[in-house]
Structures are given as C-alpha cells and as structure tokens.
Amino acid sequence: MGQLAATLDGVLTLEAMMYRHMAEAIEEEFGGDGKDAVRAGIFEYGRWRGERMRQHHLASGIELSARELFEHWTTGDVPLLIATGKASVTASDIEAELTIDESP
Hints:
two-stranded antiparallel sheet
C-alpha cells in the first residue's frame, strides 16, 4: 500500500472508531432509545449522502445506475477498501452488493 493509501486508511479507521465510540456511549447512556436515535441518524445521513451523489451524477452526465454509483464513488472510502482487498463490489445496472471483509 502506498503512503497516500496508508494515510487515507488510517483516517478512515479513526473516523470509524470515533463513530463506534460515540454510538456505544449513546446506547449505553440511553439504552434502546439511544440505539434508535443513532440508527435514525445513520439513515438520515444515508438519505442526505445519496441525494448528494445523485445530484453529482446528474450534474456530471453520469447514468443513474447501481454500477455507475460504484464506478464514480465520490469519496475515497470504497475505492480504498477495494484497492486494499478489504472489500469487493458486484454490480449491475439495477443492483449492487458491497462486501466488506475487514473493518475496525
């Protein structure tokens, strides 16, 4: 792994661990309500992120399909996971499966 990839991998691991510790503390403090709140926040982030990606595709003239989603991913996380062998993607025009083999 090159220096840039190693640095990005470290940043992504730190972000994942930060989220993990925050989510665990919220669930520990508030029980099921905390877990529900974290889950709702994740889903809201997913909707926001998906809309941003959709707008990027439309503005760039990229087809809206599952395959193109992963071909033109706009952050470094998925490409890095794939490049380092920690994940794989199988995609067609209508569906995609991201398999993450290793995570923090």
